[in-house]
Amino acid sequence: MTEVFYDKDADLSIIQGKKVAVIGYGSQGHAHAQNLRDSGVDVVIGLREGSKSIAKAEEAGFTVLSNREAAEQADVIVILAPDQHQRKLYAEDIEPALKPGKALMFAHGFNIRFGYITAPEGVDVFMVAPKGPGHTVRREYEAGRGVPVIAAVEVDASGKAWDLAWSYARAIGGLRAGGIKTTFTEETETDLFGEQAVLCGGTSQLVQYGFEVLTEAGYQPEIAYFEVLHELKLIVDLMWEGGIAKQRWSISDTAEYGDYVSGPRVIDPRVKENMKAVLADIQSGAFAERFIADQDAGAPEFLALRAKGEAHPIEQTGKKLRSLFAWKQQDEDYVDGSAAR
Ligand code: NDP
Ligand code: MG
Ligand code: MG
């Protein structure tokens, strides 16, 4: 059985004794920076010139420096800019500031696993990856709880990289929930597979097809929205609490029987074969290459796919419905129904 690490297994004073530079102040960046600070860690923020995040970080009371200056000053450099920009900012601003004894920290293994970043000798390379979105990482910490983390050490130059990793994990609140050991390879490949096959890709496509089938058959889009999207959260909450078994315990016998006989008709064994092909492209680096090549070209494929997704009729229906009902929650960084980012 996997060993789980908690607060009692980590020495908070290790990270409290270091200066930490958080590069990027987005979803993960703001959460790590604020949680570290509240845990008594000395944090500066690194951002590119003209960044629209500067005002946000300064408003939160942080000192904001250039990426290079922040990396120069810090013992631990935390790379929380988007994965596709990390290679360039690392080469230009971080690598020149690295010296033996410093440490590089990631929240996802992409750039290390696929070879876009290689640290110089003498530098520890570790990862603490929260298994949840950045805004939840901050909210849970403020509520006295934490989001579980997985941690890895790629290079243990100091011989103490694991102690540093667990200390960091504790400071962001992750060990209040629990942490488990992984490797950069395992984290990267499973994270990409999970988001592509099930969590994001699989679920989005499943919901869109469900909505299309009902509306094309003449049912009201608002009713279709409730049935295939709104209720999904309630089902997933049950799975999260007690597995698929708890979900099946809670639903009606009619729904449970339908689950058994129709689930495998919709998600048939071909889907498993498709998933294996997706995993093979992740493992071979083909997905990473395609993503980075598109990003390097200005992201034409990515932006076209994003626009196509936003134009799906389910988004219009959802926007209208959510504005009419009391469950609607505001997220300070998300403008509902608009592509503003
Ligand atoms: P975001 O897209 O939220 O990061 C945006 C931030 O990075 C902004 O502050 C942006 O500033 C800044 N940024 C962009 N380019 C640069 C640059 N060249 N130099 C410095 N800062 C820059 O990223 P995420 O938080 O989503 O992801 C960060 C890392 O965390 C990734 O490795 C990701 O895989 C991982 N991760 C993310 C999760 C999540 O919840 N989103 C979950 C677990 C891991 P500007 O205003 O200038 O654009
Ligand atoms: Mg993930
Ligand atoms: Mg991911």
From TrEMBL:
Mg(2+) 2 binds at D191, E227, E231. The active site is at H108. NADP(+) binds at Y25, G26, S27, Q28, R48, S51, S53, G134. Keywords: Amino-acid biosynthesis, Branched-chain amino acid biosynthesis, Magnesium, Metal-binding, NADP, Oxidoreductase. GO terms for cellular component: cytosol. It comes from the Bacteria. Pfam families: KARI_C (PF01450), KARI_N (PF07991). Its cofactor is Mg(2+). Residues 183-328 form the KARI C-terminal knotted domain. Residues 1-182 form the KARI N-terminal Rossmann domain. Pathway: Amino-acid biosynthesis; L-isoleucine biosynthesis; L-isoleucine from 2-oxobutanoate: step 2/4; Amino-acid biosynthesis; L-valine biosynthesis; L-valine from pyruvate: step 2/4. Substrate binds at S252. Mg(2+) 1 binds at D191, E195. It catalyses: (2R)-2,3-dihydroxy-3-methylbutanoate + NADP(+) = (2S)-2-acetolactate + NADPH + H(+); (2R,3R)-2,3-dihydroxy-3-methylpentanoate + NADP(+) = (S)-2-ethyl-2-hydroxy-3-oxobutanoate + NADPH + H(+). GO terms for biological process: isoleucine biosynthetic process; L-valine biosynthetic process. Its EC number is 1.1.1.86. One of its GO terms (molecular function) is magnesium ion binding. Involved in the biosynthesis of branched-chain amino acids (BCAA). Catalyzes an alkyl-migration followed by a ketol-acid reduction of (S)-2-acetolactate (S2AL) to yield (R)-2,3-dihydroxy-isovalerate. In the isomerase reaction, S2AL is rearranged via a Mg-dependent methyl migration to produce 3-hydroxy-3-methyl-2-ketobutyrate (HMKB). In the reductase reaction, this 2-ketoacid undergoes a metal-dependent reduction by NADPH to yield (R)-2,3-dihydroxy-isovalerate. Belongs to the ketol-acid reductoisomerase family. This is Ketol-acid reductoisomerase (NADP(+)). It comes from Ruicaihuangia caeni.
